[in-house]
Amino acid sequence: MIKRALALAILAYLAFLAEFILYNIFGAWGKPELMLLLIIFCNLYWGIRYSLWAAFTAGVLKDAFGGGPFCTYVFIYIAAAYLATLVRNNFYRPGSRLSRAVVALVVMAGVFILEVMARMRSFEVRIGEAAVFILLPQAIVTMLAATFVFYRLRDLAVKLKL
Q1: The whole model's pTM is what?
Q2: Element (H, E) at 16
Q3: From residue 3, how far is each of 55, 91, 96 by CA, in Å?
Q4: 125-145 pLDDT, tens per residue?
Q5: Residues 65-114: pLDDT tens digits?
Q6: Topology given in CATH for the domain delimited by 2-160
Q7: DSSP 32-88
Q8: Largest Cα–Cα distance of the chain, in whole Å?
């Protein structure tokens, strides 16, 4: 249990670094939400307990280096973990290709929560621009990367016997 929790913290850190590097090289259209994919993978592979740990770790990392209010991403990632659990329990069947739909739904919910929180802080949010410049790149790139990332994480989990 401790081994898995430590491995998830290290994977969250590596996902954070990879997101940072990909964003600086390719911009918004080349950066999948790797931390969100890690949270969804943990939920589908090990359950909600480890998904919440990965969400908390990833959220603290992203909030610590972000410019927004602290715990914004902790809240978004924990909400994503619970949403992934809801989808997994009601719609997802192991071995199906529905994991991309789970990813798309969780990414959309994360962007929606981020925009609602921006409105709560009295920032003007233009829904059309948010959909084109935030939601569309995140959803498309993350769904394209989902299968590759899930296979690599599964291989790593089997290799490390997590």
Answers
A1: 0.87
A2: helix 2-26
A3: 17, 30, 29
A4: 677 777 777 778 888 888 888
A5: 987 788 888 999 999 999 889 888 887 666 666 667 777 788 888 878 87
A6: Arp2/3 complex 21 kDa subunit ARPC3 (1.10.1760)
A7: --HHHHHHHHHHHHT-HHHHHHHHHHHHHHHHHTSSS-TTHHHHHHHHHHHHHHHHH
A8: 48
